[in-house]
Write a structure and sequence with these properties.
The chain is of the alpha/beta class. It folds into two domains: 149 residues, Rossmann fold (3-Layer(aba) Sandwich); 299 residues, Dihydrodipicolinate Reductase, domain 2 (2-Layer Sandwich). Helices cover 32% and strands 21% of the residues. The longest helix has 20 residues. It starts with 6 loop residues before the first strand and ends in a 36-residue tail after the last strand.
Length: 506
């Protein structure tokens, strides 16, 4: 790695679960792959009173438990690069000591002023910590670059997102801020760009003339996992749709960029958000379905309903399932409906994009089931990552009975290649200063603006029902009503890419 990338990686909230499970194991993988500079140090910062020796032992244990790479030969060398200091996040006077600690580390490790500040903290501190860093000059780039990484959520609504933007941009420039969305770090999400723009056979078909509709599903088989307090203030719309799924939509729908430079790609993503057809309040009940999982028995085990989870109000109106229909009003996608679906306690964990191509204008062959699904291109993000093409073939025998068959590629088939984790990829990009896969302020605001009518109607009125659905099913019964063509339905995926069916299980 170029010497200009020597740096100190500072993690605020270093005693938290994200640091143990994702951040430090990802950094260790980069270290083993020799993608970290020789002159590198990690400074953990938190309120907890822990010594550097104790922090190193905790991270050694975390690497052994959550490592993403089999090689353990470098653990001891890596943990010697880890340090720890205690700070009160909201007390600006303690940031002077942090500045001195960083200066000492730079001197001892021969590192210039390059610094990354990763905020693995509650969102309420996203305005506090950057302001306090700036108060002691730790945002200044006269001795090297300074970068700020914040985790989603980027605000809780349009108003709070605007406030966060104004707060951050008081002291930090846009090119210093990296808003991390781990979905965009997944190899299969990035492969959307390659699939679309490196294959001449897709571009002529990737438009309103040949595509009937686009479907994006992100399903989880687990419940809220003891995060009732957080989920009650979030819900599926804020937790998944506003960030993850709209970003995936943008990558699916964007125009070819002029180059692979971050600014060129992000400009095209922003254009998609700006082209989203506004949802009118009167139409919310027709284009958005919300649901909440109910108690059910799954594989012989009784699982609680959402309102029975710890930290959840017994009369909670928080949605754990969202299905949404919308349009992108531009030349490529005019009139093509996009459908998004996400939820907790669904039959399986899966994230995928399905391109549903239009049926032939005159169907000559028997087999109505083929017409219902037509040709599909399935891009699987997780699990069993890969690409699946579904098309019709003649069933052996007399006549012209047609059945759907699969042609598929699995990333596992590239056995000599290792798929890096999302955090590993995004952390590496942040070190290089590559913002391609990070959300820009304008994107965040446009996404909130688009969803505001839905949020307002759900919050202020009961004209849109909150449907119950048994845990382990694919959401409310009426979710198929969103699909405009009554001969078509959602794809019901299974854990395996090539399988689908309403009763798939893990």
């Amino acid at each position: 790695m170029n010497i200009s990338e020597n740096h100190i990686y500072v993690i605020f909230g270093a005693s938290g679960d994200l640091t143990r499970r994702k951040l430090v194991p990802a950094l260790y993988s980069l270290f083993i792959r020799k993608l970290l500079p020789d002159n590198f140090a990690l400074l953990g910062v938190s309120r907890s009173s822990v010594s550097t020796a104790e922090f190193r032992e905790q991270m050694r244990s975390a690497i052994n438990q959550f490592k993403e790479i089999d090689d353990v030969s470098g653990i001891e060398e890596f943990v010697r690069k880890l340090f720890y200091t205690t700070i009160q996040f909201d007390d600006v006077s303690t940031y002077s000591a942090l500045k001195q600690e960083l200066a000492l580390l730079r001197s001892e490790s021969n590192i210039c002023g390059n610094t990354i500040f990763y905020l693995s903290t509650p969102p309420g501190l996203y305005g506090v910590i950057p302001a306090n860093l700036a108060a002691v000059g730790l945002n200044l780039q006269d001795d090297g670059w300074k970068r700020l990484i914040i985790e989603k959520p980027f605000g809780n609504d349009l108003g709070s997102a605007m406030q966060l933007k104004e707060s951050l941009l008081l002291d930090w420039s846009e090119d210093q801020i990296f808003r991390i969305d781990h979905y965009l770090g997944k190899e299969t999400v990035q492969n959307l760009l390659v699939t679309r723009f490196s294959n001449g056979m897709f571009e002529p078909l990737w438009n309103r003339n040949y595509i009937h509709h686009v479907e994006i599903t992100s399903a989880e088989s687990i419940g809220i996992e003891k995060r009732g307090g957080y989920y009650e203030t979030s819900g599926a719309l804020r937790d998944m749709v506003q960030n993850h799924l709209l970003q995936v939509t943008a990558l699916t729908a964007m125009e070819p960029p002029s180059s692979l430079e971050p600014a060129a790609i992000r400009n095209e993503i922003l254009k998609v958000f700006q082209s989203l057809r506004p949802i009118q309040r009167k139409d919310v009940q027709h284009v958005a379905i919300r649901g909440q999982y109910l108690s059910s028995t799954i594989k012989g085990t009784v699982v609680p309903g959402y309102r029975e989870e710890a930290g959840v109000a017994p009369d909670s109106q928080t949605e754990t399932f969202v299905a949404l229909k919308f349009y992108i009003d531009n030349w490529r996608w005019g009139g093509v409906p996009f459908y998004i679906r996400t939820g907790k306690r669904l039959p399986t964990r899966v994230t995928e994009i399905v391109i549903h191509f239009k049926p032939t204008p005159h169907f000559l062959f028997s087999g109505d089931k083929h017409r219902q699904s037509c040709n599909q291109l399935v891009i699987r993000i997780q699990p069993d990552e890969g690409i699946l093409l579904k098309f019709g073939m003649k069933t052996p025998g007399s006549g012209f009975e047609v059945q759907n068959v699969n042609m598929e590629f699995h990333y596992d088939d590239l056995s000599i290649q290792r798929l890096p984790s999302a955090y590993e990829r995004l952390i590496y990009d942040s070190i290089k200063g590559d913002a391609t896969l990070f959300a820009r302020t304008e994107e965040v605001l446009e996404a909130w603006k688009f969803l505001t009518p839905v949020m307002d109607v759900w919050k202020n009125g009961h004209e849109v029902p909150l449907y119950g659905y048994p845990a382990g099913t694919w959401g409310p019964d009426n979710v198929d009503d969103l699909i405009e063509d009554k001969e078509m339905t959602w794809r019901y995926p299974c854990k395996n890419l090539s399988d689908d069916g309403f009763f798939c299980e893990l």
